[in-house]
Amino acid sequence: MDRVSDARPQRAGNPGAQRDRLAVARRSEQGLADRDLADRDLAGQDPTSSVRTCVGCRSRAARSDLLRIVVVDGELLPDVRRRLPGRGAHLHPDLACLDLAERRRAFPRALRVSGPLGLERVRAHVQQIPRPGRDEDEPGRC
């Protein structure tokens, strides 16, 4: 019996293609693992709680830690009870995140609306919320 006929034919084309596919698969597995670790690191939160992204600093946090913002008649409103209808954007209740979101024009993009949006009511609400354990002069993320 001839062994040559039993040998598998080699693939034609780029010899590094299989190596490239394996590298992509490893990176995607690593990305999923990193995301899972980030979800578990959310300050000991219940793993079944919803995770949202702050439109200001773009960090992920539990939904209960973020303030939901909705748009009504061109004005942004804080949705404290999370019951107002429509699409919502989430934000840390912090002036630094609000300023970042305003500078990046994140609210129209997240809420899928065009035109300028009024921030006065959201800013007034965020200023009323006390932030214990945080120095007011401290720059940086939430």
Structure in words:
- The chain is an alpha+beta fold and 142 residues long.
- The chain has a domain of 78 residues: 2-Layer Sandwich (Hypothetical Cytosolic Protein, Chain: A).
- It is built from 4 helices and 5 strands.
- The strands form 2 sheets. The chain has a 3-stranded antiparallel beta sheet.
- The termini are far apart.
Which SSEs are present, and which pair or pack?
Blueprint lengths: L16 H24 L10 E3 L6 E3 L4 E6 L2 E5 L8 E4 L3 H9 L2 H6 L8 H9 L14
Antiparallel strand pairs: 1-2, 3-4, 3-5
Please provide a brief summary of the model.
With 142 residues, this protein is α+β, with helices and mostly antiparallel strands. The protein has helices at residues 17-40, 95-103, 106-111, 120-128, and strands at 51-53, 60-62, 67-72, 75-79, 88-91.
User: Which regions are unreliable across 5 or more consecutive residues at pLDDT < 50?
Assistant: none
The CATH class assignment of the domain at 51-128 is Alpha Beta
Number of E-state strands? 5
Order of helices and strands: HEEEEEHHH
Question: What is the CATH superfamily of the domain at 51-128?
Answer: YlxR-like
Kindly report how far apart the N and C termini lie: 72 Å
Helix content: 25-40%
Task: Give the spatial strand order of the biggest sheet.
Answer: 4-3-5
Structural class: alpha+beta
Report the mean per-residue pLDDT as an integer.
78
Major β-sheet profile: 3 strands, antiparallel
How much β-strand is present in the residues? 5-15%
User: In CATH terms, what is the fold-level topology of the domain at 51-128?
Assistant: Hypothetical Cytosolic Protein, Chain: A
Radius of gyration: 24 Å
CATH architecture field of the domain at 51-128:
2-Layer Sandwich
What's the shape? extended
Instruction: Tell me the number of helical segments per DSSP (H or I, 4 or more residues long).
Output: 4
